[in-house]
Every structure is written in C-alpha cells, then in structure tokens.
Specification:
about 325 residues; alpha+beta; Aminoglycoside 3'-phosphotransferase, Chain: A, domain 2; 9 helices; about 40% helix
C-alpha cells in the first residue's frame, strides 16, 4: 500500500493490491482508494462528499466517452476506516506532475512540440466531450449548490464567496476580496448553456498513455456551470505553473495551453462558441487564490511554513490576479 507521488493535496489517495475469496472463488485486483480527509488536518475544502464524487464518475462513464476509472465500491459509513471512501480499479499511465511542476522537469517538458500539442488537443477534447452532458438533457440537480442565485453561475460564485469566508479564518486577503468585487461588477452579459463541469480541469488530473488521455481523475470540484468555467481553469492553471517557471528563469512551456489555441480547438470540436473567456480566466485565478491560501494554512498547521507579514504573499499569482481584475498599483 502506498500513496501516489507528485500530485494531490486534497483527498487522501492510497494505491493497493487486494486478494479475496467469495464462495470458493479467489479474485485479485490493483485498486485505488479515495478517502475523505480529517477535519483536524485543515483540509483544503470544507466538505468532501465522496458519494457525490462517486455519482459524478458514474454519470460521466455512462453518459459520455470521457474515460474514467472503473468504479468498484462506495462506503459512506465512516466507522470502517474512520472516514468515507470509495474504491476504483487502478489504471496504469503517466500524469504531468504538480510537485515539481511539469514545466520544470519531466516527460512533458522533454517532449517534442508536436507531442505537446497532441497532449493539449487531446485534453481540450476531453472538455468538449464532457460538456455534452448538459443540464437540458441530464438530471444534474445533485450537483446544484444550495445557495442563493438566479443562475448556476451565480450560485457557483456565491458558493466560492462562502468558501473564501470559511477558509480565511480571521484573515482578510485584500487581493482576493477586490477580485470578488471586480468580477461581480463586471458580470458577463450572457453565458453559454449549463453543463457538467469537471471543476478542476487540468492536465495534472489526467492520466496519459503516451500523449493521449487515458483516464480523468479528481472530480471533487465538479459543478453545474457554463462550459467556460472549465476552459478558463485549464488555461489559467497552466499559466500559473508557467509563471513560476519564468520567475525562476526557466523556459517552461510558453507555447502550451495558449488561450487562442485552446479556444479554437474547443470550438471546432464542440460546435459551441466560447464567450467571455477573460472573465472566466480571472475567475479561475480567484478560485485558485483561495485554494492556495488554504494550502498555506495546511502548511502552517503542520509546522512547515509561517504566514508572511503580507498575507497576500501566500498567493504566488497575486500580481496576475490583481492585473486580471484591474487592481491598479
């Protein structure tokens, strides 16, 4: 039994091999368990609804061609392991690492531009296929946020605002709060239809066979929202890592996941028009900023870091977020 390397700061993931006998028949399998984190360990998110994650993976596998790990079992009784968990079959492939980021070293950085573009296009194709699961033709009510708001995007925004209020404890992050105000004041005039959004749509949550997507991982941020929520997140999350590389005077992957390329590929594959992408990229930067403050809080809790005097310095992309949300100075 072991934990995977290179990724993951949220739910606990364990890889293990199991053998069991039922009615005289022996079976064995290589499996993965996703376990809800303990509230005492300063989890990134306030709630971890593993039954909902299981239902999302099940729906995606049944209603689309997006590859997901084969599901085995869901256990909602926390007395078994001390927390809820579910079990999937293990899929063998490779994942662009978060730690250290794939823009600094590894197989994707070492690949040819043609291979990198093949991986990019295949990853965008996942979004185009996933977004065929729309609110008009599927019951996505189990993903609805129970907060005020006249549209799914408004409810998503309000949910993010409440997530920030929960996560900040007694801190006030000026760059985040100003970004909330700017996004609210510059709300898109129109949005595309609501679809099932992955929520954490990035290549670090995809397992690849060579440079082709093999399976899609990590559905804990899934939600109902316009498709641009996922597109903006996929573009921004690469920009986040690329900016770190450039600060360290590394080349990284400057031609990878560019907004124009991603948009044209998505529109060609989906037949949909991408609207107000700049707003959704800024929203992604805001959402990721809140996550990063929570990651810092976890590190402080475990004695691995201290809060800086300027607490916004805990947000690596604070300057990008400020620029995207027109925060002068």
């Amino acid at each position: 039994m072991r934990a995977p390397d290179g990724s993951g700061m949220s739910s606990e993931t364990l890889l293990f091999d199991a053998r069991w006998t039922v009615a005289g028949t022996q079976s064995e399998a290589s499996l993965v368990a996703r376990i809800a984190p303990s509230g005492e360990d300063v989890p990134v998110f306030e709630t971890y609804d593993l039954a909902q994650q299981y239902a999302v993976i099940e729906l995606v596998g049944q209603a689309s061609d997006v590859p997901v790990p084969p599901l085995r079992w869901l256990e909602t009784d926390p007395d078994v392991l001390g927390a809820q968990f579910f079990v999937m079959e293990r899929v063998l492939g490779r994942v662009p690492a978060d730690i250290p980021p794939y823009v600094m070293e590894g197989w994707l950085l070492d690949a040819t531009p043609e291979q990198q573009r093949r991986l990019q296009d295949g990853s965008v194709a996942l979004l185009a296929e996933l977004h065929t699961i729309d609110a008009a033709n599927h019951d996505l009510g189990f993903l609805a946020f129970d907060v005020p708001g006249e549209t799914a995007l408004r409810r998503h925004f309000e949910h993010q605002r409440r997530f920030y209020e929960w996560s900040r404890d007694d801190r006030h992050h000026a760059v985040i709060e100003a970004a909330f105000e700017w996004l609210d004041s510059n709300w898109p005039n129109s949005t595309s239809p609501d679809v099932l959004c992955w929520g954490d749509a990035r290549i670090g949550n995809v397992m690849y066979d060579g440079f082709e997507p093999l399976t899609v991982l990590d559905w804990e941020m899934a939600a109902v929202a316009p498709a641009e929520l996922d597109i903006g997140w996929m573009i921004f999350l690469h920009r986040f890592f690329q900016d770190i590389a450039e600060v360290l005077e590394l080349t990284g992957l400057p031609q990878f996941m560019l907004a124009d390329d991603v948009t044209s590929t998505y529109e060609s594959l989906s037949g949909r028009t991408v609207d107000n992408l700049a707003w959704f990229e800024a929203y992604a930067a805001l959402r990721h900023a809140v996550v990063m403050t929570r990651v810092t809080a976890r590190s402080v809790h475990f004695g691995e870091a201290e809060w800086p005097n300027d607490i916004d310095a805990a947000i690596p992309h604070r300057a990008i977020l400020a620029a995207m949300t027109d925060q002068a100075g």
